[in-house]
Amino acid sequence: MDLRGELRNAGLKDKDLAEKLNVSKSTVSAWVNGKQRPSWDNLEKIAEILGLKLKVEFVDPNENDNFKGVLDSSILEIFSNGKKLCSIEVKKD
In this protein, which residues make up the domain named HTH cro/C1-type (predicted)? Predict the structure, then answer.
């Protein structure tokens, strides 16, 4: 997900999202710039605010080939000990 673009599409700025989520503007800026990732709770709230739908897909860590060429910035990957456990895809309604 391009958070900056989605905020722009919704007519919101970093500070607007920060106020809606009760977090600092610097926290939202870190999310936008890819320096941090929002918590699951905040990710759900962001999706609701921006009119996005969350899709969670669990994968077998031994079959990483399923995602070759598919991963992009709209997918949040979760790893454990270097193995992918799941990815979270954010899509428009």
Answer: 15-58
**Placement of tokens 């997900």 in the chain:** 1
Among 68, 72, 74, 65, residue whose Cα is nearest residue 46: 74
H-type alpha helices, the chain: 3-9, 14-21, 25-32, 40-50
For the chain, how big is the Rg over CA atoms in Å?
14
CATH number of the domain within which 81 lies: 1.10.260.40
Range of the domain at 74: 3-92
Instruction: Give the SS3 label for residue 2.
Output: coil
**Has residue 21 got a pLDDT over 90?**
yes
In the sheet with 75-80, reading across from the earlier edge strand, the strands are 52-58, 83-92, 75-80
Please say whether the dihedral angle defined by the alpha carbons of residues 80, 83, 86 and 90, taken in this order, is positive or negative: positive
- Residue 93 above 70 pLDDT? no
